[in-house]
Amino acid sequence: MAATGFQQWKVEKPWLELKCALGEGPFYEKETNSVRLVDIKKKQVLSFSVTDDGDASSLKTVQLDTCPTVTVDIEGVDPQDRILLGVKHGIAVLDRQTGTYELLAKFNDQKSTERIRANDGAADPHGKFWLGSMTDFEYGEPQPEGVLARFDSSKSKEEVLKDLSIPNGIGWSPDNKTMYFTHSKSREVFAFDYSPETGDVSNKRLWYRHDGPGEPDGFRVDVDGNVWHAIWGESTVLKIDPKGNVIGSITLPTRNITCVQFVGTELVITSAADADGDDISQKYGGGVFKVDVGTTGLDLFKFKL
Fold first, then answer.
1. How far apart (Å, rounded) are the C-alpha atoms in residues 110 and 116?
2. Binding residues for substrate
3. Dihedral of alpha carbons 159, 160, 162, 168, sign
4. pLDDT tens across 242-294, in order?
5. Binding site per annotation, positions for a divalent metal cation
6. What are phi and psi of 32, to 5 degrees?
7. What's the pTM?
8. Is 243 exposed, middle or buried (0-12, 13-18, 19+ CB in 10 A)?
9. 222 is catalytic
10. What domains does the chain contain, in order, with CATH numbers?
């Protein structure tokens, strides 16, 4: 593949056929050289060694009674013991040895929150956890009732954005001065000025608008500041440069691509089941894919509990 010009990769088959209903939030766990992810619909946290060779022989599954939507490490805590989860009602700490969790903070306390569940999120450079909320599955098409909230170690919550339908991926540029946030329903990715000193955000602006039939979902940022963005419904991951120009693409065999995670120079890619696609998309929906893209990603931040 040439070093210049538009870059293209094609993945024919899954690395692991996990058959996730809604696989999301891949996270590289350095301490164990493993990848963990969530299956939101099956209410599971899954983990497996990066050395698995297609058979998922090391797969570990934690079954919960609530939907986990995203995971992050906790600063100073061994992730084999405890990690932070986004869950239906807010944020929780999962004890991975017992499979139990403790709810730390809620989106809010009204009974109306039964309509709402968490979605994607991430810890920021200050150790605060940003988490979006949206209409839960059984209440039909997502309505503009979600928020992008920021939780801190005092368990307090600040609603930064409101009236969202599908708040999704969130991440930071290599210098931590730009924060990116995806609103899937409107097919828009926004950029904010982020203060490395205070953690404040300002100057919200449209950074990328997707003009295809699919919707931008989760993403990760590489060491050069490029955003690798999963596109739901299009069998695609896009490589977008810091100016918002698409400079590469990965084509996959199933439609509902949800998120990505760097493991060295390999990009691990999650997906969801596809009941309405062609035979190949249905067969491989919910699988985990990987492809060497020749660059590395930024380390993800940890939550300060």
1. 11
2. 117, 119
3. negative
4. 999 999 999 999 999 999 999 999 999 999 999 999 999 999 999 999 999 99
5. 24, 168, 217
6. -115, 5
7. 0.96
8. exposed
9. no
10. 7-292 (2.120.10.30)
